[in-house]
Specification:
This protein has 15 helices and 20 strands. It is an alpha/beta fold. It folds into two domains: 153 residues, Leucine Aminopeptidase, subunit E, domain 1 (3-Layer(aba) Sandwich), CATH 3.40.220.10; 313 residues, 3-Layer(aba) Sandwich (Aminopeptidase), CATH 3.40.630. The protein starts with a strand and ends with a helix.
Length: 502
C-alpha cells in the first residue's frame, strides 16, 4: 500500500472515497454531530448533504460510527465517508490511529482501492500524520498464509493524506517514513507470532533473527545449547530439558555510529517460548493451540531493534531473546526440582508452567553481563494479569518509579494502554523458598502477576528495569474495526518511542 501526501483541494481529489471524522456534541445526552471547520466545508461543497444527517440523528459523532454517501455532488471522489470521533475532550492520536485503520478496513471490504484521509484543523501536524499512517499500516494486516482456498484479495492500493499545510510537506513525509518503518516491523512480528510452533521452533526463530539482522546491518550472536550450558544458564536449561528441540539465546545489537561516553546501554529482553504445554504441570487441552503465541515477547523485541536499525537512536541497544519449548517429556523438570540460575541464585520449581520467568531470569543476567545499564522485558507471562486488567491494558511493573514513568509516557504517545502495577516489598516475601533462595510461584493467594514481576526483579537487582506483562494484550480473538483478529504487535510502538527519546 502506498501512503502519500495529497496537495489538491479536497473537492478535486479523484479517489474511490474521501474520509474525514466528526465529533459529537460536548453537551451530555445531545446526540448531534458538530458540523464545523472541515466538515462544514464538505457540507457546503456537497450542497448541504451532511448537516441534515446530523439534524435527523443519523450522524451523531459516536466513536467509529460510519456514515457513507455515494457519488456526493460537488466532490470528484466516488464516496464520502464520515466517521464518528467521539467527544473532542477525549480525542487523541490513539483515536486517530483507530479511525484511520477503521476507514481502511471498512472501505477495503466494499471494494475501494484508494481513498484520501482528510485531516481536521487540529490534526494537521507531523505527529498526527504519523499516527494516521501507523493506523493504516496496522489495519492493512491480515493473515491467510496457510489457507489453500483463498478468497479473491481485496487490496487497498493507495491512501492519500490530505489537508496538511504545504510548508510542512517535508516534515509530514518524514513522519510517514517513520510510520512505515514502525509498521513494517510490527507486521514482521505479527507474522512470526502467527506461525504454528512446528514451523517456528527455537532454531527456526534464531534463523529468522539472523536473516533480519543481516538485512538490517545489525550484529547478531546465537547461543546454542553448548554455550548456554557453559554460561550456566540453569533456569533456561531446566525449562528446555523436556523437549527434543534445543534452546537458543538470540542476541541482536545495535551500536550508534557515534556513542557519547557513559551513555546508557538499553536491553530489550523478550520471552520466546515457541510452544508452552505447561510441562509436567500441563495445561488443559482447551485452547492450548494458542500457546504458539508464547513467544510474542521475543518477537516484539526483535521487531523493535529491527526498526531502530533504520531509525538510528544515539544510544546502544540490544535485544536478548531466550527461546525454548516447554514440553512434558521424560527428561522434563518436575515440581520440586531446584535449578541454579546463571546469577547463582537457586530456584525451587513449584509449577513448571511458570517457565517464562525462569528463562527471562537467565536472559536478564546475560544482558547485564553484556553491559546493559537499563532493562525492559516483555512477556506473555501470567494469566493473573488477564484477571486484573482483562485484554485492555498491559501490566507495567518497574523500579525505580521514574524509569517506569518514562516508559508509560512513551505508551501514551504511542497510543498503547499500559497500567502501572504495584511491586511492594510485601510481595517479595511470597516468593521465598524453604529449600532454595526463591520459588517460581508465589506462596500466597492472588497477586500472581506481581509475584512473577518480583521474581524477575530478583535478577534485575538494582539495574533500572521495567517488566511488561502482555499476556492479555498480545493476541486478539475477535477482529476490531481497526484491526484483524490475531497478534496485535502490542508494545512495539511504545518501545521504539522510548528508545528514540532515551
Amino acid at each position: 500500500m502506498q501512503i502519500e501526501i495529497e496537495a489538491q483541494p479536497f473537492s478535486s481529489i479523484s479517489s474511490d472515497a474521501i474520509v474525514t471524522y466528526v465529533f459529537g456534541d460536548r453537551v451530555s445526552g445531545n446526540n448531534e454531530a458538530r458540523i464545523e471547520s472541515v466538515l462544514a466545508e464538505l457540507d457546503r461543497a456537497t450542497e448541504g448533504k451532511i448537516k441534515p444527517l446530523a439534524d435527523s440523528g443519523e450522524l451523531t459523532g459516536k466513536f467509529l460510527e460510519m456514515t457513507l454517501l455515494h457519488y456526493p455532488q460537488g466532490l470528484a471522489a466516488k464516496k464520502l465517508l464520515v466517521i464518528g470521533a467521539g467527544k473532542p475532550e477525549k480525542f487523541s492520536h490513539a483515536e486517530l490511529r483507530k479511525i484511520a485503520g477503521a476507514a481502511l478496513r471498512y472501505l477495503r471490504a466494499r471494494g475501494a482501492k484508494s481513498f484520501a484521509f482528510l485531516a481536521r484543523e487540529n490534526e494537521q501536524t507531523p505527529a498526527a500524520a504519523q499516527a494516521m499512517a501507523e493506523g493504516l499500516l496496522h489495519a492493512e494486516y491480515d493473515s491467510d498464509k496457510y489457507q489453500t482456498e483463498k478468497k479473491p484479495a481485496k487490496v487497498m492500493e493507495r491512501v492519500s493524506l490530505a489537508g496538511f499545510p504545504a510548508n510542512s510537506r517535508a516534515e509530514i513525509e518524514a513522519a510517514i517514513a517513520r510510520a512505515k518503518i514502525i509498521g513494517e516491523a510490527e507486521i514482521w512480528a505479527r507474522d512470526m507470532i502467527n506461525e504454528p510452533s512446528n514451523r517456528l521452533t527455537p532454531r527456526m526463530l534464531a534463523e529468522r533473527a539472523e536473516a533480519m539482522a543481516r538485512e538490517a546491518g545489525l550484529e547478531i550472536d546465537v547461543l546454542d545449547e553448548k554455550r548456554i550450558a557453559e554460561l550456566k544458564m540453569g533456569a533456561l536449561l531446566g525449562v528446555a530439558q523436556g523437549s527434543a528441540e534445543p534452546p537458543r539465546v538470540i542476541v541482536v545489537r545495535y551500536r550508534p555510529a557515534q556513542k557519547k561516553p557513559n551513555s546508557p546501554v538499553l536491553a530489550f529482553v523478550g520471552k520466546a517460548v515457541t510452544f508452552d504445554t505447561g510441562g509436567i504441570s500441563i495445561k488443559p487441552a482447551n485452547n492450548m493451540e494458542e500457546m504458539k503465541t508464547d513467544m510474542s515477547g521475543g518477537a516484539t523485541m526483535l521487531a523493535v531493534i529491527r526498526a531502530l536499525a533504520r531509525l538510528k537512536p544515539p544510544i546502544e541497544v540490544m535485544a536478548v531473546v531466550p527461546a525454548t519449548e516447554n514440553m512434558p517429556g521424560g527428561r522434563a523438570q518436575k515440581p520440586g526440582d531446584v535449578q541454579i540460575a546463571m546469577s547463582g541464585k537457586s530456584i525451587e520449581v513449584i509449577n513448571t508452567d511458570a517457565e517464562g520467568r525462569l528463562i527471562l531470569a537467565d536472559a536478564i543476567c546475560y544482558a547485564k553481563k553484556l553491559g546493559a545499564t537499563h532493562l525492559i522485558d516483555a512477556a506473555t507471562l501470567t494469566g493473573a494479569i488477564i484477571t486484573a486488567l482483562a485484554n485492555v491494558h498491559v501490566g507495567a511493573f518497574g523500579t525505580p518509579r521514574e524509569f517506569l514513568d518514562r516508559v508509560l509516557d512513551s505508551a501514551r504517545a504511542a497510543g498503547e494502554k499500559m497500567w502501572p502495577m504495584p511491586i511492594d516489598d510485601e510481595y517479595q516475601e511470597m516468593i521465598k523458598s524453604k529449600i532454595a533462595d526463591i520459588r517460581n510461584t508465589g506462596s500466597g493467594k492472588g497477586g500472581g502477576s506481581i509475584t512473577a514481576a518480583w521474581f524477575l526483579k530478583e535478577f534485575a537487582e538494582d539495574t533500572p528495569w521495567v517488566h511488561l506483562d502482555i499476556a492479555g494484550t498480545a493476541w486478539r480473538d475477535d477482529a476490531k474495526p481497526w484491526s484483524a483478529s490475531g497478534p496485535t504487535g502490542i508494545a512495539i510502538r511504545t518501545l521504539i518511542d522510548f528508545a528514540m527519546r532515551m
